[in-house]
Write a structure and sequence with these properties.
By secondary structure, the protein is of the alpha/beta class. The chain has ten helices and six strands. Strands 1-4-3-5-2-6 form a six-stranded mixed sheet. A hairpin with a 3-residue loop joins strand 3 and strand 4. Helix 4 packs across helix 7 and helix 8 packs antiparallel against helix 9. Bound molecules: zinc ion (ZN).
């Protein structure tokens, strides 16, 4: 698995709307975007509107983009925390780094890859801050909102946390898989049959759509597709 990381930080002239307070982060809050836009669109949408809605990071199947420095707050938990809130300093909006996982509306392979990128990125942040898994919250923990909706609907919050724990133990270099947009090629018919068998079994268990088998048989499946498939097969088998 690999993603690229970049910063497209909001201009400081927007701090008063999007990130007015200095923050000493204590938690990471996980969200699903509930739409099908890539991370760069999520970030540019946030840059361009003047709503008090913001988050630090958006993750998709290709990249992790940071928009707000981690020492400033963002408005993503729906639990207040403004000037008039007497408990402001206990609120997710004032304590947590907001991470949005893209493509959650329709799900599928690109969502599966985005979610795995979030797992890897959150594991990296936890290690960086020397935090344990208990620092990872879901949006729902702060104000009851049904978010991250796809992880909750698929009853995978605990497995999501377990994947982060596992990623923290694993050497990062083991996750560097080169994205391969070329069609899959096989060195032998046995190797090809084994991969076909693997896809067939996942289709039989209804973990993936049967169109993937068709794609394999037509020779139109790419290395990148297959990496994504493997990830969602593991996710859905847990
Ligand atoms: Zn949310």
């Amino acid at each position: 698995m690999s993603y690229t990381f970049r910063q497209i930080l909001i201009p400081s002239t927007k701090y008063s709307i999007k990130a007015p307070y200095i923050m000493f982060p204590q938690f990471i809050t996980v969200h699903n975007t509930a739409n099908d836009a890539p991370a760069v669109n999520e970030i540019s949408y946030m840059h361009n509107n003047n709503n008090q809605v913001s988050y630090h990071v958006a993750v998709d199947d290709k990249e992790v983009i940071q928009a707000i420095p981690f020492n400033r707050n963002a408005w993503h938990c729906g639990d207040g925390g403004g000037d008039k809130d007497p408990n402001a300093l206990k609120k997710g909006n004032r304590l947590s780094i907001g991470v949005e996982i893209c493509y959650s509306k329709s799900g599928g392979v690109r969502y599966g890859v985005a979610e795995e990128n979030a797992v890897q990125y959150i594991a990296k942040l936890l290690k960086q801050f020397e935090w344990g898994i208990e620092r990872v919250k879901k949006h729902q923990d702060w104000n009851g909102k049904y978010c991250p909706h796809r992880i909750l609907a698929e009853d995978r919050w605990n497995s999501f946390l377990n994947r982060i724990k596992k990623a923290m133990e694993t050497n990062e270099s083991e996750h560097q898989i080169v994205e391969d947009e070329d069609m899959m090629k096989f060195t032998s018919t046995t190797a090809k049959a084994a991969v076909r068998d693997y896809i067939q079994q996942a289709v039989d268990k209804k973990l993936i759509d049967k169109s993937w088998l068709q794609k394999f048989d037509n020779g139109t499946i790419t290395g990148g597709d297959f990496e994504g498939l493997k990830i969602i097969i593991v996710q859905r088998s847990m």
